[in-house]
Protein backbone atom coordinates (compact mmCIF):
# COMPACT_ATOMS: atom_id res chain seq x y z
CA UNK A 1 0.00 0.00 0.00
CA UNK A 2 1.29 3.48 -0.85
CA UNK A 3 1.22 6.20 1.77
CA UNK A 4 -0.89 8.39 -0.54
CA UNK A 5 -3.89 6.13 0.06
CA UNK A 6 -4.03 7.36 3.67
CA UNK A 7 -6.29 10.37 3.42
CA UNK A 8 -6.88 13.21 5.83
CA UNK A 9 -9.56 11.33 7.76
CA UNK A 10 -7.19 8.39 8.35
CA UNK A 11 -4.59 10.78 9.69
CA UNK A 12 -7.09 12.54 11.94
CA UNK A 13 -8.16 9.15 13.28
CA UNK A 14 -4.53 8.36 14.15
CA UNK A 15 -4.36 11.68 15.99
CA UNK A 16 -7.56 10.98 17.92
CA UNK A 17 -6.33 7.55 18.95
CA UNK A 18 -3.12 9.09 20.19
CA UNK A 19 -5.07 11.31 22.55
CA UNK A 20 -6.85 8.25 23.97
CA UNK A 21 -6.30 4.82 22.47
CA UNK A 22 -9.39 3.45 24.23
CA UNK A 23 -11.72 6.31 23.33
CA UNK A 24 -15.13 5.00 22.13
CA UNK A 25 -15.65 5.24 18.40
CA UNK A 26 -18.81 7.24 19.12
CA UNK A 27 -16.75 9.98 20.79
CA UNK A 28 -14.10 9.95 18.05
CA UNK A 29 -16.81 10.13 15.39
CA UNK A 30 -18.38 13.12 17.10
CA UNK A 31 -15.02 14.91 17.32
CA UNK A 32 -14.21 14.17 13.67
CA UNK A 33 -17.67 15.05 12.39
CA UNK A 34 -18.34 11.67 10.77
CA UNK A 35 -20.45 8.63 11.60
CA UNK A 36 -19.41 6.02 14.14
CA UNK A 37 -19.66 3.40 11.41
CA UNK A 38 -17.16 5.35 9.30
CA UNK A 39 -14.66 5.53 12.16
CA UNK A 40 -15.00 1.80 12.86
CA UNK A 41 -14.57 0.97 9.18
CA UNK A 42 -11.45 3.16 8.85
CA UNK A 43 -9.95 1.64 11.99
CA UNK A 44 -10.55 -1.92 10.81
CA UNK A 45 -9.13 -1.04 7.39
CA UNK A 46 -5.88 0.21 8.90
CA UNK A 47 -5.35 -2.73 11.25
CA UNK A 48 -4.12 -5.14 8.53
CA UNK A 49 -1.70 -2.40 7.48
CA UNK A 50 -0.03 -2.47 10.88
CA UNK A 51 -2.10 -0.18 13.10
CA UNK A 52 -1.98 -1.35 16.72
CA UNK A 53 -3.12 0.19 19.97
CA UNK A 54 -0.90 -1.34 22.64
CA UNK A 55 -1.09 -0.99 26.40
CA UNK A 56 2.37 -0.26 27.78
CA UNK A 57 3.54 -0.23 31.40
CA UNK A 58 5.53 2.75 32.65
CA UNK A 59 8.52 0.93 34.09
CA UNK A 60 9.38 3.57 36.71
CA UNK A 61 5.92 3.15 38.27
CA UNK A 62 6.43 -0.61 38.56
CA UNK A 63 9.74 -0.48 40.38
CA UNK A 64 11.77 -1.30 37.28
CA UNK A 65 14.82 0.51 35.90
CA UNK A 66 15.24 0.78 32.14
CA UNK A 67 18.69 0.39 30.63
CA UNK A 68 19.78 1.11 27.10
CA UNK A 69 22.39 -1.32 25.80
CA UNK A 70 24.77 -0.65 22.90
CA UNK A 71 26.18 -3.94 21.70
CA UNK A 72 28.89 -4.09 19.03
CA UNK A 73 29.13 -7.41 17.19
CA UNK A 74 30.77 -8.94 14.18
CA UNK A 75 28.57 -8.39 11.09
CA UNK A 76 27.79 -12.10 10.68
CA UNK A 77 26.41 -12.42 14.22
CA UNK A 78 24.48 -9.21 14.87
CA UNK A 79 21.17 -10.55 13.58
CA UNK A 80 21.41 -13.76 15.61
CA UNK A 81 22.30 -11.89 18.80
CA UNK A 82 19.49 -9.38 18.22
CA UNK A 83 16.99 -12.22 17.79
CA UNK A 84 18.21 -13.84 21.03
CA UNK A 85 17.80 -10.58 22.94
CA UNK A 86 14.34 -10.10 21.44
CA UNK A 87 13.22 -13.45 22.87
CA UNK A 88 14.04 -12.34 26.42
CA UNK A 89 11.00 -11.24 28.47
CA UNK A 90 12.99 -8.43 30.10
CA UNK A 91 13.71 -6.58 26.83
CA UNK A 92 11.13 -4.21 25.38
CA UNK A 93 12.74 -3.26 22.07
CA UNK A 94 15.74 -4.29 19.98
CA UNK A 95 17.02 -2.57 16.82
CA UNK A 96 19.91 -3.06 14.42
CA UNK A 97 21.93 -0.06 13.23
CA UNK A 98 25.35 1.14 12.01
CA UNK A 99 25.97 -1.17 9.12
CA UNK A 100 24.68 -4.21 10.96
CA UNK A 101 27.51 -4.24 13.51
CA UNK A 102 25.73 -2.43 16.34
CA UNK A 103 22.43 -3.14 18.04
CA UNK A 104 20.45 -1.25 20.63
CA UNK A 105 18.34 -2.93 23.27
CA UNK A 106 16.10 -1.66 26.08
CA UNK A 107 16.42 -3.82 29.19
CA UNK A 108 14.03 -3.57 32.14
CA UNK A 109 15.51 -4.77 35.43
CA UNK A 110 14.09 -4.76 38.94
CA UNK A 111 17.32 -5.61 40.77
CA UNK A 112 21.06 -5.32 40.23
CA UNK A 113 21.25 -9.12 40.03
CA UNK A 114 18.78 -9.20 37.13
CA UNK A 115 20.75 -6.50 35.33
CA UNK A 116 24.16 -8.06 35.97
CA UNK A 117 23.08 -11.53 34.87
CA UNK A 118 22.86 -10.20 31.32
CA UNK A 119 25.47 -7.43 31.35
CA UNK A 120 28.24 -9.17 33.29
CA UNK A 121 27.57 -12.82 32.52
CA UNK A 122 25.57 -13.63 29.40
CA UNK A 123 26.56 -10.94 26.90
CA UNK A 124 30.33 -10.79 27.59
CA UNK A 125 30.51 -14.57 27.10
CA UNK A 126 28.51 -14.52 23.86
CA UNK A 127 30.68 -15.34 20.84
CA UNK A 128 31.17 -12.49 18.33
CA UNK A 129 30.18 -9.78 20.84
CA UNK A 130 32.97 -7.21 20.65
CA UNK A 131 31.81 -4.72 23.30
CA UNK A 132 28.82 -3.83 25.47
CA UNK A 133 27.96 -0.51 27.06
CA UNK A 134 24.99 0.03 29.37
CA UNK A 135 23.28 3.37 29.92
CA UNK A 136 20.73 3.89 32.67
CA UNK A 137 17.71 5.92 31.55
CA UNK A 138 17.51 8.54 34.27
CA UNK A 139 14.52 10.43 32.88
CA UNK A 140 12.27 9.76 29.90
CA UNK A 141 11.08 13.01 28.35
CA UNK A 142 8.83 11.44 25.74
CA UNK A 143 7.88 7.95 24.61
CA UNK A 144 7.72 4.64 26.41
CA UNK A 145 9.29 2.74 23.52
CA UNK A 146 11.56 3.23 20.57
CA UNK A 147 8.82 3.06 18.02
CA UNK A 148 6.98 5.84 16.27
CA UNK A 149 3.81 7.19 17.89
CA UNK A 150 2.31 9.03 14.92
CA UNK A 151 4.54 11.93 15.95
CA UNK A 152 3.75 13.88 12.83
CA UNK A 153 0.22 14.26 14.15
CA UNK A 154 0.99 14.66 17.85
CA UNK A 155 -1.66 17.01 19.23
CA UNK A 156 -0.39 19.91 21.31
CA UNK A 157 -2.31 18.71 24.35
CA UNK A 158 -1.29 15.07 24.04
CA UNK A 159 0.80 13.68 26.91
CA UNK A 160 4.48 13.88 26.09
CA UNK A 161 6.79 13.05 28.98
CA UNK A 162 5.70 9.51 29.69
CA UNK A 163 6.24 8.78 33.32
CA UNK A 164 8.11 12.04 33.90
CA UNK A 165 5.74 13.17 36.61
CA UNK A 166 5.94 9.82 38.35
CA UNK A 167 9.69 9.21 38.31
CA UNK A 168 10.01 9.89 42.03
CA UNK A 169 6.71 8.29 43.07
CA UNK A 170 6.85 4.97 44.94
CA UNK A 171 6.28 1.85 42.82
CA UNK A 172 2.68 0.87 42.32
CA UNK A 173 1.84 -2.59 43.62
CA UNK A 174 0.07 -4.89 41.16
CA UNK A 175 -2.35 -7.70 41.87
CA UNK A 176 -3.18 -10.68 39.66
CA UNK A 177 -5.91 -8.77 37.83
CA UNK A 178 -3.52 -5.92 36.98
CA UNK A 179 -0.99 -8.35 35.54
CA UNK A 180 -3.55 -10.07 33.36
CA UNK A 181 -4.75 -6.67 32.13
CA UNK A 182 -1.21 -5.68 31.13
CA UNK A 183 -0.85 -8.94 29.22
CA UNK A 184 -4.19 -8.57 27.41
CA UNK A 185 -3.71 -4.89 26.60
CA UNK A 186 -0.25 -5.60 25.20
CA UNK A 187 -2.05 -7.74 22.61
CA UNK A 188 -4.86 -5.26 21.97
CA UNK A 189 -5.11 -1.96 23.77
CA UNK A 190 -8.72 -1.62 22.63
CA UNK A 191 -9.87 -4.97 24.01
CA UNK A 192 -13.43 -4.54 25.24
CA UNK A 193 -14.48 -4.65 28.88
CA UNK A 194 -16.31 -7.98 28.37
CA UNK A 195 -13.17 -9.45 26.79
CA UNK A 196 -10.99 -8.20 29.64
CA UNK A 197 -13.53 -9.41 32.19
CA UNK A 198 -13.45 -12.89 30.66
CA UNK A 199 -9.63 -12.93 30.74
CA UNK A 200 -9.39 -11.78 34.35
CA UNK A 201 -12.40 -13.55 35.77
CA UNK A 202 -13.66 -10.24 37.16
CA UNK A 203 -16.76 -8.21 36.41
CA UNK A 204 -16.62 -5.45 33.75
CA UNK A 205 -17.10 -2.82 36.47
CA UNK A 206 -14.17 -4.24 38.44
CA UNK A 207 -12.01 -4.27 35.30
CA UNK A 208 -12.91 -0.63 34.66
CA UNK A 209 -11.85 0.32 38.19
CA UNK A 210 -8.51 -1.41 37.68
CA UNK A 211 -7.99 0.35 34.35
CA UNK A 212 -8.87 3.72 35.85
CA UNK A 213 -6.38 3.14 38.68
CA UNK A 214 -3.55 2.02 36.41
CA UNK A 215 -4.04 4.93 34.02
CA UNK A 216 -4.72 7.48 36.75
CA UNK A 217 -1.59 6.45 38.66
CA UNK A 218 0.53 6.76 35.50
CA UNK A 219 1.39 3.05 35.35
CA UNK A 220 -0.34 2.32 32.02
CA UNK A 221 -0.12 4.24 28.76
CA UNK A 222 -1.63 3.41 25.37
CA UNK A 223 0.75 3.57 22.43
CA UNK A 224 -0.29 4.04 18.79
CA UNK A 225 1.89 1.87 16.59
CA UNK A 226 1.75 2.50 12.85
CA UNK A 227 4.40 1.99 10.18
CA UNK A 228 5.70 5.49 9.39
CA UNK A 229 6.69 4.37 5.89
CA UNK A 230 2.99 4.30 5.03
CA UNK A 231 3.04 8.05 5.55
CA UNK A 232 6.25 8.67 3.63
CA UNK A 233 8.76 8.54 6.52
CA UNK A 234 11.53 6.11 5.59
CA UNK A 235 14.46 6.95 7.88
CA UNK A 236 14.32 6.02 11.57
CA UNK A 237 17.42 7.33 13.34
CA UNK A 238 18.92 7.09 16.80
CA UNK A 239 20.41 10.42 17.90
CA UNK A 240 23.04 10.54 20.65
CA UNK A 241 23.76 13.95 22.16
CA UNK A 242 26.39 15.26 24.54
CA UNK A 243 24.78 18.18 26.37
CA UNK A 244 26.20 20.40 29.08
CA UNK A 245 24.61 19.46 32.43
CA UNK A 246 22.94 22.84 32.96
CA UNK A 247 21.11 22.49 29.62
CA UNK A 248 20.21 18.80 29.82
CA UNK A 249 16.62 19.32 30.98
CA UNK A 250 16.07 22.22 28.57
CA UNK A 251 17.21 20.19 25.57
CA UNK A 252 15.29 17.07 26.62
CA UNK A 253 12.07 19.02 27.07
CA UNK A 254 12.62 20.78 23.74
CA UNK A 255 13.07 17.45 21.92
CA UNK A 256 9.78 16.27 23.44
CA UNK A 257 7.98 19.04 21.55
CA UNK A 258 9.53 18.25 18.16
CA UNK A 259 7.15 16.27 15.90
CA UNK A 260 10.08 14.28 14.49
CA UNK A 261 10.99 12.80 17.89
CA UNK A 262 9.18 9.74 19.23
CA UNK A 263 11.48 9.01 22.17
CA UNK A 264 13.96 11.04 24.21
CA UNK A 265 15.67 10.26 27.51
CA UNK A 266 18.48 11.49 29.71
CA UNK A 267 20.99 8.67 30.19
CA UNK A 268 24.26 7.90 31.90
CA UNK A 269 27.44 7.80 29.86
CA UNK A 270 29.46 10.02 27.54
CA UNK A 271 26.32 10.81 25.54
CA UNK A 272 23.90 11.98 28.19
CA UNK A 273 20.80 12.32 26.00
CA UNK A 274 19.43 9.85 23.46
CA UNK A 275 16.50 10.28 21.09
CA UNK A 276 14.72 8.37 18.33
CA UNK A 277 13.54 10.36 15.34
CA UNK A 278 11.56 9.61 12.19
CA UNK A 279 12.38 11.42 8.95
CA UNK A 280 11.37 11.27 5.31
CA UNK A 281 14.96 10.77 4.18
CA UNK A 282 18.56 11.99 4.55
CA UNK A 283 17.73 15.58 3.54
CA UNK A 284 14.99 15.73 6.16
CA UNK A 285 17.39 14.42 8.82
CA UNK A 286 20.01 17.00 7.79
CA UNK A 287 17.50 19.86 8.04
CA UNK A 288 16.45 18.67 11.48
CA UNK A 289 20.02 18.50 12.78
CA UNK A 290 20.85 21.86 11.19
CA UNK A 291 17.74 23.87 12.04
CA UNK A 292 16.37 22.29 15.21
CA UNK A 293 19.15 20.58 17.15
CA UNK A 294 21.77 23.08 16.00
CA UNK A 295 19.85 25.91 17.64
CA UNK A 296 19.49 24.26 21.04
CA UNK A 297 21.78 25.46 23.85
CA UNK A 298 24.57 23.40 25.32
CA UNK A 299 24.99 20.86 22.49
CA UNK A 300 28.62 19.73 22.54
CA UNK A 301 28.44 16.68 20.30
CA UNK A 302 26.03 14.63 18.20
CA UNK A 303 26.05 11.15 16.72
CA UNK A 304 23.38 9.79 14.38
CA UNK A 305 22.78 6.11 13.62
CA UNK A 306 20.01 5.17 11.14
CA UNK A 307 18.00 2.09 12.09
CA UNK A 308 18.41 -0.81 9.69
CA UNK A 309 15.85 -3.17 11.20
CA UNK A 310 13.49 -3.22 14.15
CA UNK A 311 13.74 -6.68 15.66
CA UNK A 312 11.40 -6.12 18.61
CA UNK A 313 9.18 -3.27 19.73
CA UNK A 314 6.21 -2.50 21.96
CA UNK A 315 6.78 -5.47 24.22
CA UNK A 316 5.28 -5.55 27.73
CA UNK A 317 7.69 -4.99 30.60
CA UNK A 318 5.67 -6.38 33.50
CA UNK A 319 7.68 -9.00 35.42
TrEMBL record:
A Gene Ontology annotation in the biological process aspect, one of them, is: response to amino acid
Q: Which InterPro entries does the UniProt record give? A: AsnC-type_HTH_dom (IPR000485), Dimeric_a/b-barrel (IPR011008), Tscrpt_reg_AsnC-like (IPR019888), Tscrpt_reg_AsnC/Lrp_C (IPR019887), WH-like_DNA-bd_sf (IPR036388), WH_DNA-bd_sf (IPR036390)
Task: Name any GO cellular component annotation.
Answer: cytosol
**Would the keyword rRNA-binding turn up in this protein's UniProt record?**
no
Q: Which SUPFAM superfamilies match?
A: Dimeric alpha+beta barrel, Winged helix' DNA-binding domain
The alphabetical list of record keywords is:
DNA-binding, Transcription, Transcription regulation
Classification via Pfam families:
AsnC_trans_reg (PF01037), HTH_AsnC-type (PF13404)
Top-level taxon of origin: Bacteria
Give one GO term, molecular function aspect.
sequence-specific DNA binding
Signal sequence residues: none
Residue ranges of every copy of the HTH asnC-type domain listed in the record: 6-47, 174-234
Name the Gene3D superfamilies on file. 3.30.70.920, Winged helix-like DNA-binding domain superfamily/Winged helix DNA-binding domain (1.10.10.10)
Looking at the keywords, is Transcription present? yes
PANTHER family for this protein: LEUCINE-RESPONSIVE REGULATORY PROTEIN (PTHR30154), TRANSCRIPTIONAL REGULATOR AZLB (PTHR30154:SF34)
- Protein name in UniProt: Lrp/AsnC family transcriptional regulator
Which source organism does the UniProt entry give? Streptomyces kanamyceticus
Amino acid sequence: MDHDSLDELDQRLLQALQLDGRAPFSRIARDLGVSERTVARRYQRMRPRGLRIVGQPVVSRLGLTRWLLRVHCTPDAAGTIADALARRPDTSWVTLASGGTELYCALNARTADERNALLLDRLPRTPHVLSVSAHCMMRIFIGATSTWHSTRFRPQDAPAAVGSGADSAPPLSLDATDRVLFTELARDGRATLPELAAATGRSPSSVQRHLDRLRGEGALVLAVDFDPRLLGFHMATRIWLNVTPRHLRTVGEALATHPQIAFAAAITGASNLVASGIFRGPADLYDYVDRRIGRLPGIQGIETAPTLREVKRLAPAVP
